[in-house]
Amino acid sequence: MLISLLDVRKALESEAVVPCFQPIVELHTGNLAGFEVLARWQHPSLGLILPENFIALAEENGLIGELTHQILSKSFLAASALPEPLSLAVNVSPIQLQYASLSRQFYQAAEDYGFPLRRLTVEVTESALANNLENARKIATELREMGCKLALDDFGTGYSSLTHLQALPFSQLKVDRSFVKSMTEKRESRKIVAAVVGLGHSLDMMTVAEGVETEEQAGILLWLGCELGQGWLYGRPLPAEHIPDMIAASPQTLSSPFSASGGSLTAPRLEATPTQRWAQLQAIYDGAPVGLCFLNKNLRYVSINQRLADLNGAPVAAHIGRTVHEMLPKLFPRVQPFIQRALQGEAIVNLEVLKPSPKHGEPDLTVHSSYQPAFDEAHEVIGVSVAILDITQRKQTEEALRATEEDLRHLMELTPQIPWTLDADGNLLDISSRWEQLTGMSCEQARNLGWLEALHPEEMAPTAKALKEALNTGQPIDIVHRVKTANGKWKWLRARGSPSYGPSGKIVRWYGGCEDIDEFKEMEEALHKGSAGTCSSNA
Ligand code: C2E
Ligand code: CA
Ligand code: CA
């Protein structure tokens, strides 16, 4: 398109250069944050002409100030449709940051149209700073003092210099759309975007990604911690009359696997600052009672916490950069297949492994190991996160408990008593196998109230009554009754037991035993008969 200086002059005279408004949204909510103002020339015959065809001419011929004036006035006028806290971002050409009149021009326009400058961001490119940094700093500081925010546009292209970044009071970094475009295919671009976002975070600047055209790009940007985005996914630059529609449009939330709401991934920066998050993660890492480390694809330690270093028997620093094989030559062959599977993307959890003790000559430790693949933003495995829980003590305690239970069982079998356990309602939970030997009724049959079946009919009701009373009062059980033995005879037993209380003070169990009092009963009967005989003889 051949456009002459005369054409540009005419365009400005006829006020044919107009602002278009492109939405800028919060990536994690899809909510509108404001608009970037982009100049368009409404040509009577050629239609809308893009800025690349006239900005340079305006700059070179001293018309850019007038162009900015027209764009600012028309934008501020249109901004009456813009509710708080929506903001506007306007572009200024590099050379404009050398004109002392710039801040005055902004101040005047804002005054004339009543637009608060605290809702205005001024976008400058780095080339604006290359010529006379001192001058640019002075003008930028004036803009800041008037309340405007400053954004560094097209970051990463041109003469990127960290000196520029800290020389001016920027509060936003705009990631150039060339990186966003190639980010999904090229790992290098992704790394650059990640680095720019990281740089923004560490300098306490918001990052805005330009040229977001797909959900996939938005998802990756969100995952990398980028706060704001603009691009065709959220809306093309449109004339002022479309502002109400763009405000009314519902938020564009993400459905990609990297979205903040779907899945367990959350944007690295929603509330906490990166420094806080890092400090928190470091504290969790260091203080965890679980051994933790991160291995890269070559199975070298990238990080390890103190707990795991202790379990491995070497200082933290000795691990970093070395392979698992170098650090744990004995254990490595046992775990290598599982780590390899994790590198293929499979999560391995709670694998029980015998791990050589860090102390020489001591028995192996028993550990639960988990190997979790770690993915990057493009879902490529970049390493394995390892968690090791030492369960040696638990295993030993379990073993000891089992042995104690076994011993108790033996002891119980040796006593002449028939030990039993009732629950709080009087249901039999357990009884010695001696019961079965005596009555022929299995422990299973005796469970709950089954044991009552073995009782002599005469003692069934009194036993049930006495038991109920003990259960109600908590008084010890002491009941004498007969049971039918395996050979069909009746045998006298004395059942005694006492309650056991839980932490709440309620009875939870009754423990007791039955003792064979047949001989005693016989003696008692004999005595009774004897005394009865004496009595009768007296009578
Ligand atoms: P910029 O500041 O980097 O503006 C972003 C450019 O990306 C705009 O091009 C916009 O239309 C385009 N864009 C936005 N979203 C997408 C997308 O999803 N995909 C693609 N492919 N492109 C997208 P535009 O409007 O042609 O503006 C070009 C440049 O002209 C701007 O680049 C800015 O440097 C300059 N410019 C625009 N308006 C003004 C102005 O009022 N004053 C000055 N000095 N420069 C301006
Ligand atoms: Ca811009
Ligand atoms: Ca840009």
- Main sheet: strands, sense, barrel: 8 strands, mixed, barrel
Strands ordered across the widest β-sheet? 1-2-4-5-6-7-8-9
Overall body shape: elongated
**Secondary structure tally, helices:** 21
Radius of gyration of CA atoms, rounded to a whole number: 42 Å
Q: Quick check: average pLDDT? A: 89
Question: What's the arrangement of secondary structure elements?
Answer:
Elements: H1 5-13, E1 17-26, E2 32-43, E3 47-49, H2 55-60, H3 64-78, E4 87-91, H4 102-113, E5 120-125, H5 127-130, H6 133-145, E6 149-155, H7 162-167, E7 172-175, H8 177-182, H9 187-202, E8 206-209, H10 215-224, E9 228-229, E10 238-239, H11 243-248, H12 274-287, E11 291-296, E12 301-304, H13 306-312, H14 316-319, H15 324-327, H16 332-343, E13 348-355, E14 365-375, E15 381-390, H17 392-414, E16 418-423, E17 428-431, H18 433-439, H19 443-446, H20 457-473, E18 477-484, E19 490-501, E20 507-516, H21 518-538
Parallel strand pairs: 2-4, 4-5, 5-6, 6-7, 7-8, 8-9
Antiparallel strand pairs: 1-2, 1-9, 1-10, 2-3, 11-12, 11-15, 13-14, 14-15, 16-17, 16-20, 18-19, 19-20
This protein binds ligand C2E and calcium ion (CA) (2 copies).
Ligand C2E binds at residues 22, 38-39, 50-52, 55, 71, 91-93, 123, 153-154, 177, 210-211, 213, 230-232, 237.
